[in-house]
UniProtKB/TrEMBL annotation:
One of its GO terms (cellular component) is endoplasmic reticulum membrane. PANTHER family: LYSOPHOSPHOLIPID ACYLTRANSFERASE 7, PORCUPINE. Pfam families: MBOAT (PF03062). It is found in: Endoplasmic reticulum membrane. The chain crosses the membrane at residues 268-284, 352-374. This is Leukocyte receptor cluster member 4. Keywords: Acyltransferase, Endoplasmic reticulum, Membrane, Transferase, Transmembrane, Transmembrane helix. It comes from Equus caballus. Belongs to the membrane-bound acyltransferase family.
Length: 399
């Protein structure tokens, strides 16, 4: 782990070839494009520093250190060192320059635990690896590209996307856990638990650094900043929206911070579509990426409308049944969208989706229409629509 010096040598120690992605046909292709993401984030952090300096000059007094703010603008050498840092070289996770700098300037690196957090994080990876090998052997993706596959009965074709997505998840779980373990082994991304760090963004509360080794040793740390996957919640959360939040978590923070918030729309669904479009472009130019990513906003819109229209009307027992059905449909939607992500080509993706009669697209459209119809017919909706609109500007300010 880096020491407390911030001289050029401290940065050059951590140089390595830049972040890159495997080829599209590599079995462990994870689509890591961290380098540009790092530089976009760094540019934003530098802009935040300039804005803070201007406010300080305008007010005439210093407010002291701000949470997450850079101390000064990085030099060219520091920028290159950050961009070429070996941590997360293959699969991420994404990290801000502030996180990288805190790692280098950790005052008592020996007090930061790494072995126990690493073992706690790594233990499920061998199991996930075995499950990936087994599922990909029993249900090879190449079978979907063969003509014989489409002679199978409809239930077989529908079922096949489930183990394909299962293998897809297991592969990413292993790779992202391994990437997190690489960070943990280096003490990278460790912050006090009291700082309430979030994946990608880092601390949300100010925590003064310990003044002695003894105090540093008594601090409880975690590695939430570089946490990239929540395997349990990815599989067992109820909603499509929640599943997105638990998958590739550091990059989700980056997309929310730099793409979603700057989208030229106000609607959640349109902002999500804009974000998914740019995310698809980030992955590559294969049509399957765009078909899959741009199905997500339709599912989000259908989910939001139907939940708003129906779930609240159910009894507690009915809501529990609803949540189980919702979870089942969420997983089937991700199975369906995964096929475009792994088949890649326009022809292969549409051929498979057509063989299952575009079931998720049709189901989402029906759910969206039903939700809109029920919400439009609800008494509370009509009552709201009949009220004066003088509160609209206040509502817009709240949003």
């Amino acid at each position: 782990m880096g020491g407390s010096s911030r001289g050029p040598g401290a940065h050059l120690v951590h140089l390595w070839p830049p972040h890159f992605a495997f080829s599209d046909h590599h079995p462990w292709d994870l689509g890591s494009h961290s380098g540009p993401a790092l530089l976009v984030s760094l540019a934003s952090e530098v802009q935040d520093l300039h804005l803070a300096q201007r406010k300080e000059m305008a007010s005439g007094f210093s407010k002291g250190p701000n949470l997450g703010l850079l101390p000064d603008v990085p030099s060219l050498l520091e920028t290159l060192s950050y961009s070429y840092c070996y941590v997360g070289i293959m699969t991420g996770p994404f990290f801000r320059y502030r996180t990288y700098l805190d790692w280098l300037e950790q005052p008592f690196p020996g007090a930061v635990p790494s072995l126990r957090p690493l073992l706690c994080r790594a233990w499920p990876a061998p199991l996930f690896g075995l499950l990936f090998l087994l599922s990909s052997h029993l249900f090879p993706l190449e079978a979907v590209r063969e003509d014989a596959f489409y002679a199978r009965p409809l239930p077989d074709r529908l079922f096949y996307m489930i183990p394909v997505f299962f293998a897809f998840r297991m592969r990413f779980y292993v790779a992202w856990i391994a990437a997190e373990c690489g960070c943990i082994a280096a003490g990278f991304g460790a912050y006090p638990v009291a700082a309430k760090a979030r994946p990608g963004g880092g601390p949300t509360l100010q925590c003064p650094p310990p003044s002695s080794l003894e105090k540093a040793a008594s601090v409880e740390y975690n590695y939430e900043t570089i946490r990239n996957i929540d395997c349990y919640d990815t599989d067992f959360c109820t909603r499509v929206r929640e599943g997105m939040r638990h998958w590739n978590m550091t990059v989700q923070w980056w997309l929310a911070q730099y793409i979603y918030k700057s989208a030229p729309f106000r609607s959640y669904v349109l902002r999500s579509a804009w974000t998914m479009l740019l995310s698809a472009y980030w992955h590559g130019l294969h049509p399957g990426y765009y078909l899959s990513f741009l199905t997500i906003p339709l599912c989000l819109a259908a989910e939001d409308q139907l939940v708003s229209a129906l779930r609240g009307r159910l009894s507690p027992g009915g809501q529990r049944v609803w949540d189980w059905v919702h979870w089942f449909l969420k997983m089937r939607a991700y199975d369906y969208m995964c096929m475009g992500f792994v088949l890649l080509s326009l022809g292969d993706t549409l051929r498979y989706w057509a063989s299952v009669y575009f079931c998720i697209h049709i189901l989402a459209l029906v759910a969206l229409g039903l939700g809109l119809a029920l919400r439009g017919a609800s008494p509370s909706r009509r009552k709201t629509a009949s009220q004066p609109t003088s509160l609209a500007p206040e509502k817009l300010r709240e949003e």
